[in-house]
Amino acid sequence: MRHLIPARQNRPDKDVIFALNGEATRRKNAGESIVNATIGSLMNDDGSLAILDTVAGLLKQVPREEWAAYAPIGGTPQYLEAVLADTFAGHDALKKAATAVATPGGTGALRHALMNYLESGQKMLTPNFYWGPYMTLADEHERGLETFNMFSKDGLLDVAALDAKLDAQLKSQGRVLLFLNDPCNNPTGYSMRGSEWKQVVERLLAHSERGPITLLVDMAYFLYGTANDPRAFMAELTPLLGRVGLLFAWSGSKSFTHYGLRIGALIACEPDEKERNATQAALAFSCRGTWSNCTRGGLFAVTKLLTDSSLKAQCDGEREKLKRLLTARVDAFNALARPKGLDYPRYEGGFFVTVFTPDAEARATKMKELGVYVVPQKGAVRVALCSVGSADVPRLVDSLVA
Ligand SMILES: Cc1ncc(COP(=O)(O)O)c(C=O)c1O
Fold this sequence. Notes:
The chain contains 15 helices and 12 strands. The chain is an alpha/beta fold. Strands 2-8-7-6-5 form a 5-stranded mixed β-sheet, sandwiched between helices. The chain has a 3-stranded antiparallel β-sheet with strand order 9-12-11. Strand 3 (123-127), helix 7 and strand 4 form a beta-alpha-beta unit. Residues 40, 105-107, 131, 181, 186, 218, 220, 251, 253, 259, 264 line the site of pyridoxal-5'-phosphate (PLP).
């Protein structure tokens, strides 16, 4: 007799990315020379995990009571205030309208958005190049996922395709939940310009009277963009307040290089106080109904890192070094890949780049034979430059054209 319900009896038993990483690691441990561009963690050039020393040091000083005790269901007030103050520095209108709950990583924030802003069976909307777990999360929570074409012929965000899907979803399901992962989009590496944000906002506002539309900005790589001011795009979002729902999936995983600490937040901007309180109640209820609360010690540490000016400055300095490490790889990739005719979006920084290829599976298989691991997707392969040492970039590029 099968005890699993039918819908869960044929779940894939492996996450594709983790499986490829496992295979690459096995071959490497067996003595082969392997370039592993599958996993989304930033590695030093010697292959070790890049870790901000200030964060690692502080975690050791967190009092044991902070590790042992429960946190409040929605997160400690100090943590929530620190996240909001940091996220919206210089953007008071957004800060004033914001409420938040702590979540285990950005993933938890995405989960809460799916459950609170879509009805069961409805579909979230996102570009056709998206982080694979969006689909897993939607499926697990009995929601669907629909895409719009990400890039127009000129290589910019295809705003017309977005507009058409907004229209279609409002007709078919009466509401929209749009996920945009920017800057340093996973998997493409793309970061939108202010002018592209402006157009997105225009389109959202144009449809906003027809039904509830909610934009979620997935900020997982927020601090790795190359814009002088990583918060500049927020000025474009302010006109949405009160007309289009505005959510931010905030993650400490990459910003503080502690992926396993599972610290994140879902931030919701809602200028109407009554509605904001209802939002806070709904999100806190979701916390209680899933993971109860997050790790108090992690919330405590991240609060300190965001609010103690000298710790913050130290972290920012160490992160700058990591960004330089990454930028050197991006520059090396661009210098070699463009002249060889590889087709990929504007790539200025960030953990990944996507190289378009019609035969993604065949290309990834061929690359494996050459000892190089990437993640095949529909019409492209995802290259995690974050985990490739600078010295291996030429071999990586060669294998993409071999
Ligand atoms: C696009 C994107 N969103 C969200 C996340 C969530 O990360 P975490 O749950 O570790 O904060 C990731 C992690 O890889 C990601 O790539």
